[in-house]
Amino acid sequence: MPVTAGVRNSPYDLGMTAAVQDQPGAGRGAAPVVRNVCGMDTTVYAPGSSSPAVRARSLTKTYGKGEATVRALDGVDVDFEQGRFTAIMGPSGSGKSTLMHLLAGLDSATSGQAFLGSTEITGLNDKALTRLRRDRVGFVFQQFNLLPMFTAEQNITLPVELAGGTADKAWFDTLVDTLGLAGRLTHRPGELSGGQQQRVAIARALIAQPDVVFADEPTGNLDSRSGAEVLSFLRRSVRELGRTIIMVTHDPSAAAYADRAVLIADGRIAGDISDPTPESAMAGLDALRTLEPSVATAPGTGV
């Protein structure tokens, strides 16, 4: 019996509710493949086909009341695999940042569920959420958010020390080597370039060996060369260090560094590209931009 693509049957699904083509290994955890109306091969991760690091079920976020209600997320169902680099792509106001904030426990859902591994984070109280974010989640932000009075090394180890622990020396050395920071550990943020500061931020996000790292437009404040270096380091952290990264971006070139790109429009999952290229990511984004928006961006939400 064919499985259908894991997207909503709506004007936003880009025609991706076609039956999945039979592939070698189907039924043994392999990801089925479909072809959408843009002519791109896309991978759809059916619930239960693998062990996801993060997943959402009917995840919904609304702002306001009555006629002023804004549905920033509209019943999202999506899985993110362990040990993979996934980009969430969509135009401005699509809901991509809102989705990341709910998956990371930075905001509360109106309804639905979000899971980190087997833990339902939408059911946790504030204290438990704080502990989960500290111990199991890493963050990389567009603004770096480094403490200016601390050296690069102190910034990297800060999350572990705040939790009352000590950074693992072997893992610290691995991160420093992978991210090319050996000659910059005694420098303060003001003595580092933007690309170097973001690499420090990536090391800080990874130092506690979290289950998943969320990166929100991590190259938004960088020039093209520094941005490419940061994206390469993110990809290396997945392929060489076995990390799981979920990145929000509107840049097709950035999405091309990922193993997979999830497309979102109007608060709904609209497509899913396996091994994206700049061209396929741009084609998907262009298709999303042709859709008539019915949801406005909520003021101050960054969706």
Automatic annotation (TrEMBL):
MF terms in GO:
ATP binding
PROSITE patterns the UniProt entry points to? ABC_TRANSPORTER_1, ABC_TRANSPORTER_2, GH18_1
For the keyword Transport, the answer is yes
Domain ABC transporter: residue ranges = 54-291
Keywords on this record? Answer: ATP-binding, Nucleotide-binding, Transport
Domain of life (superkingdom): Bacteria
Name the Pfam families for this protein.
Answer: ABC_tran
Is Transport one of the keywords?
A: yes
**PANTHER family, per this entry?**
ABC TRANSPORTER RELATED, IMPORT ATP-BINDING PROTEIN
Instruction: Please give the name of this protein.
Output: ABC transporter ATP-binding protein
Its organism's taxonomic lineage begins at: Bacteria, Bacillati, Actinomycetota, Actinomycetes, Micrococcales
